[in-house]
Design brief:
Helices cover 70% and strands 0% of the residues. The chain is mainly α. GO terms for molecular function: peroxiredoxin activity.
Length: 250
């Protein structure tokens, strides 16, 4: 197939409809569609499910909420479960903040309701209130050790203990312990969110290593960056690729 044929095929698979021409910007939409669906979707080792989760991650992180509606539908169309979609967005909270997650979930939940999916979805929490630190540490240590605690130990007063504790409890205890999403997917989506945010190369170094420990090889991470390119632009992708190229198990 040529690029035009690939575009039409992939668009139909994702959105279950034929491509409709734009009435206002047909040239731009044609460039966009052929690049994303005729080219990017065919580069690398990712499944369409993973590609759509990456797209949803980028859209939520960027708060480009209108595009979340068609891509949530596309995610469901390619077999991603509602819980998987929800958990990818929930996992973003420690990285992009809760208000943005709430904005994204409002759009996603409207899609769920339009497709007859009952809300709320089944609970996926596995940790009781008093377990957040210990259970979070069980998830954190194999991937990141005590690096954050060591980095924060020179902070004054209570902050030396409070900042790393908050990270362990909120990021790892509240979210990494949840069901509905495997560790490899969580780590890959976090790396994608960090790349989307920009200016997070320091954090990406740790999470690129965390991805390797979780079982995502460099080909997978590079494939994810190519998938992100249409949504976040080349400069951020170039920075992320540099980090991934140097990533190693620590």
């Amino acid at each position: 197939m040529n690029r035009i044929e690939r575009t039409e095929k992939k668009y139909q698979e994702l959105f279950h409809q034929q491509i409709m021409a734009s009435k206002t910007d047909p040239e731009l939409l044609t460039i966009l569609q052929r690049f994303i669906f005729g080219e990017v979707f065919y580069i690398g080792n990712l499944s369409d499910k993973t590609r759509e989760l990456i797209t949803i991650t980028a859209l939520a992180t960027n708060q480009t909420i209108p595009q979340l509606t068609p891509h949530t539908n596309a995610a469901l169309n390619v077999g991603i479960t509602p819980i998987e979609i929800r958990e990818v967005i929930y996992q973003l909270a420690p990285f992009i903040g809760y208000p943005k997650v709430l904005n994204a979930m409002e759009a996603i939940n409207k899609v769920f309701e339009s497709r007859g999916i009952s809300l709320p979805l089944a609970n996926q929490g596995t940790v009781q209130e008093g377990q957040r630190f210990d259970k979070g540490k069980e998830k954190q240590d194999p991937l990141y050790g005590d690096g954050m605690k060591q980095n924060m130990k020179t902070l004054p007063g209570e902050f030396a203990d409070a900042v790393p504790r908050i990270l362990t409890e909120s990021c790892f205890g509240d979210f990494y312990t949840r069901g509905g999403l495997d560790l490899k997917t969580r780590e890959l989506m976090i790396l994608c969110a960090l790349a989307t945010l920009g200016g997070t190369e320091r954090q990406m170094v740790s999470h690129a290593s965390g991805n390797l420990k979780a079982g995502n090889d460099k080909e997978t991470m590079l494939s994810a960056m190519v998938q992100l390119y249409p949504y976040i632009g080349f400069p951020r992708i170039s920075n992320a690729i540099s980090v991934i190229r140097e990533a190693k198990l620590e």
